[in-house]
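Table S2 (text version). Query chain:
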Amino acid sequence: MSDAYKGILIFVVGPSGAGKDSLMAGAATALSQDPKISFVRRLITREAMAELEDHGTISEAQYEEMVQQGNFALHWRAHGLGYIIPKTIEDDLRAGKTLICNTSRNQLPIAHQKYPIHVINITAPLALRAERLAGRGRETKEEITQRLNRKVDDIDPDLPQTQIINDQSLEIGIARLLDAINEARTQKTAM
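Corresponding structure-token output:
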């Protein structure tokens, strides 16, 4: 990892239906006036559902071209889709910004080698996750079952991390996420 990175990359992870997108949207609104915090806009090979998520849409061909050219900070495939975190995050980290991004757990070891990171793991009880996934109306019952049954890798205990159980109201979940972000920023500043 380069010593040139003065900022921190906060990765938000968690199983499908944990409420990551909703909590991140609320936190983004609450933190929108802070110029030292940015929410990273991922590129995904799927149209965004405006009310649920904020990402850039790219085609499969664009995804493959970006990967072949090395034009990414991180990239992965999940649920039949391609995901890219733009390389531009490196400039923001050099400038000392706090970057917040929803990502895949399998990217954490790679990211930890390249960037200063903190992981916020958002989870929720299985029944609540199932209810949330069904409410999105984006997947069939079988696809929801597959998401819920998908094995989730453990997070390396050596990575700096915070866990949030998102089983209360949206407002409480957002407040918990804001607290975790502030704690991660404080720990980075103290280093």
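Notes on Table S2: The beta strands are 8-13, 37-39, 43-44, 56-57, 74-78, 81-85, 98-102, 117-123, 161-165. The chain has one domain: 8-41+88-190.
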